[in-house]
Amino acid sequence: MTRYRTPWIGYVLLAAVLGIALLGCATAPSSSPPRSQNDLLTAAGFTSYVAKTPQSLAYLKTLPPQEIVQHRYKGTNRFLVCTDQNSRACYVGDEAAFQRYQNLANQEDLAARKRNVSQERSDPEALQMWADSQGAGM
């Protein structure tokens, strides 16, 4: 009389092999590339303003590049940003746009820090240096 193994063992082994194979194919979610200051300003609600007169252009040239300058205009705060000193354009936003820009910039800074940490952690020389200092001798 011949005995056959129960078929569930084969199914369990097949499921384990497939699970390991799928786990090996899984990748970490990719992070989006860093956004430029122009992208952040636009996403925050700043509007682009192009200098049309020589006086406006001369004024834009006095603004520090890539820095936000606060102005009081008709009783409200306005924020001006010139992302490029050689450009004829700047961005203008109100208080709400400025707050959104700060939040987006903080998120972008945090994402950049996370990218830097993950890049540093994938450095094999650093891991080897750590292992050698611990006596692991990888």
How large is the count of helical segments? 5
Uncertain ranges: none
Strand content: 15-25%
Structural class: alpha+beta
Strand order of the largest sheet: 1-4-3-2
The value of Rg in angstroms is 28 Å
From the spread of the alpha carbons, the general shape counts as elongated
CA distance, first residue to last residue: 54 Å
List how many beta strands DSSP finds: 4
Mean pLDDT figure: 77
Number of domains: 1
Could you give the order of the helices and strands?
Answer: HHEHEEEHH
The helical percent reads 40-55%
Main β-sheet description: 4 strands, antiparallel
Short description:
With 138 residues, the protein is an alpha+beta fold. Helix content is 53%, strand content 15%. The protein has a four-stranded antiparallel sheet with strand order 1-4-3-2.
What does this structure look like?
The protein is α+β, with helices and mostly antiparallel strands. It has one domain. The chain has helices spanning 7-25, 37-44, 54-62, 95-121, 124-133, and strands spanning 47-50, 68-73, 76-81, 89-93. A 4-stranded antiparallel sheet has the order 1-4-3-2. Helix 2 packs across helix 4. The chain is elongated and about 95 Å long. The model has no long low-confidence stretch (mean pLDDT 77).
